[in-house]
Specification:
heterodimer, A: alpha/beta, Rossmann fold, six-stranded mixed beta sheet, 12 strands, 35% helix, 27% strand, B: alpha/beta, eight-stranded parallel beta sheet, 3 helices
Chain lengths: 260, 275
């Protein structure tokens, strides 16, 4: 589904990603872990098409198509969803209107008919129930005045409506207490299926207790320095990131090997 | 459009509350007697003068809509005098008419009087308009609020000047002024100028002006959900205007204005040189 090959990315002249290789097959959940400043969020933003990052080398294929040539909206229409670490507040834009516009743009791409306001409301209500989300979410402005937990739940809510093929969830666990984390994790788990792939970007192992990844990759100083299964996350938790930092020089990226 | 000058006179007697908005024409004189309430709408253009007296405890909402294209400059002036505990809310929707000059002068002559001057200007092509306001605090314990927002594109030019005078005896005055502008093209120009003349020492006055572009992060957020760049820009621009429209209390009036604003915003050209 997704192939990242030797991806180098710069921002403001400094190289943040220094040769990322990663292959993700349908249905797989990959966790990308790493200390602050390792380039995790950059990778997530680049996949979604953030223009302030400069891709200097490498390629990214999504279902065989050159992702880097696509606008952010085209990527979304192809089936990529970015769950933001800090969802943006947009006063004046209603959540329901925003999400229906988004859904219809994506449906159009998939050759489906547009949904009208009534059909959308029905769909949205079903999802709010499924995700334990208050229906009032729909009537509020996008993320405006939402608590940290509400913002994250709104991301998962959007994801459940838009039904992406690949969801990149950037620190979906940050700032959440344990109850909110459980709700978010439940939402993500409900969306797991054999066709949908998920990338979980996280600093902490805690999230992986609730969303079981198939693979764990450790990002350090712009490179994937370790790849493995869930046990890698436990090792990181007990030994800390210092354990992997020293190895970035000589350890080749093992990412391509792990997802057959 | 009828351009001959007509004189219209509205006198709302003591204690009378008009539930429906009243539409007035060119040269208007409005007298609000004690405890009366009314909403007056003015949507013609040309040379327009409005004189208002608001009696004790009375309340006037004045809504002005400038929409269409005039071949000659539109000049309008609004002058109000307020007695104690009266309320004036003015809402100006300047949707661009070519060239226009709008002057407002609100004098707070009675203690406890309050006025709120609000405005939205949407200027494009080669339109220009100026909004000059003056709020004169003559007595103590009066409040004024001023909130104007602008959206400018193409080669439009806007002028906002907000003057607040606080006379020496007008202690305990509270005055707030805000002017925000969204520039959607490099060739659009806005001049914004607050003028505060404060002669009393126990007052709360503040003012702020901003000039900016669409929020790049919000734009990206919308696009990552599949919404096109252009649709996302329209969405954010409408959102920018929406709180000013939302301030119109009368529902049918608000719907009418919302529709006019939407039509106007639909014609915006987003230039590629700015976000």
């Amino acid at each position: 589904m997704l192939q990242i090959k030797n991806l180098h990315v710069k921002i403001n002249g400094g190289e943040i990603l220094e040769g990322i290789n990663l292959t993700i097959n349908p249905g797989e959940v990959h966790a990308i872990m790493g200390p602050n400043g390792s380039g995790k969020s950059t990778l997530a933003q680049v996949l979604a098409g953030r223009e302030s990052y400069e891709v200097v080398k490498g390629e990214v294929l999504f279902e065989g198509k050159n992702l880097l040539k696509m606008s952010p909206e085209d990527r979304a229409r192809e089936g990529i969803f970015l769950g933001f670490q800090y969802p943006i507040e947009i006063p004046g834009v209603g959540n329901a209107y925003f999400l229906r516009t988004a859904l219809n743009a994506i449906r159009k791409q998939r050759g489906l008919e547009e949904v009208d306001a009534l059909q959308f409301l029905k769909l949205a209500r079903e999802k709010t129930k499924l995700l334990d989300i208050d229906e009032s979410f729909l009537n509020r402005f996008v993320n405006e005045g939402f608590s940290g937990g509400e913002k994250k739940r709104n991301e998962i809510f959007q994801m459940s409506i838009l039904e992406p093929k690949l969801a990149v969830l950037d620190e979906i666990d940050s700032g959440l207490d344990i109850d909110a984390l459980k709700v978010v994790a439940k939402g993500v788990n409900l969306l797991r299926n054999p066709e949908r792939s998920i990338i979980l970007v996280t600093h902490y192992q805690r999230l992986l207790d609730y969303i079981m990844p198939d693979y764990v990759h450790v990002l350090s100083e712009g490179k994937i320095v370790r790849s493995g299964d869930k046990t890698l996350a436990y090792k990181l938790e007990s030994e800390g990131y210092a354990w992997v930092k020293g190895t970035s020089e000589n350890s080749p990226p093992a990412a391509l090997e792990c997802s057959k | 459009m009828d351009t001959k000058n007509t004189q219209e006179f509205l006198n709302v007697p003591k204690g009378v509350v008009l539930k429906e908005p009243v539409h007035l024409g060119f040269n208007n004189r409005i007298i609000m007697e004690e405890d009366s309430e009314a909403t007056v709408v003015e949507s013609s253009f040309g040379n327009i003068q409005t004189n208002v007296k608001i009696g004790q405890n009375a309340r006037l909402t004045w809504v002005k809509v400038l929409d269409g294209s005039a071949t000659t400059p539109c000049v309008s002036s609004f002058v109000s005098e307020q007695s104690a505990s009266s309320i004036l809310q003015s809402q100006v929707f300047d949707l661009g008419v070519g060239v226009s000059q709008n002057e407002m002068r609100a004098t707070l002559q009675g203690e406890g009087a309050a006025c709120s001057l609000e405005g939205l200007y949407i200027l494009g092509e080669q339109q220009s308009s100026s909004h000059q306001t003056c709020i004169d605090h003559v007595v103590p314990h009066a409040r004024s609020e001023e909130f104007y927002k602008g959206i400018l594109f193409d080669r439009a030019e806007g002028n906002f000047q907000g003057k607040i005078i606080v006379r020496p005896q007008a202690q305990k005055t509270v005055a707030r002024q805000t002017n925000k502008n969204l520039l959607l093209s490099k060739d659009a120009i806005i001049h914004t100028k607050p003028l505060l003349e404060i002669f009393a020492n126990d007052v709360k006055c503040n003012h702020g002006a901003t000039i900016g572009q669409l929020d790049e992060q919000a734009l990206f957020y919308l696009r990552t959900r599949g919404i096109s760049n252009l649709a996302a820009k329209h969405m954010l621009t409408s959102a920018y205007a929406s709180d000013m429209v939302g301030r119109v209390q009368n529902e049918s009036l608000r719907n009418w204005i919302q529709n006019l604003v939407a039509i106007r915003l639909g014609k915006i050209h987003f230039s590629k040189d700015v976000v």
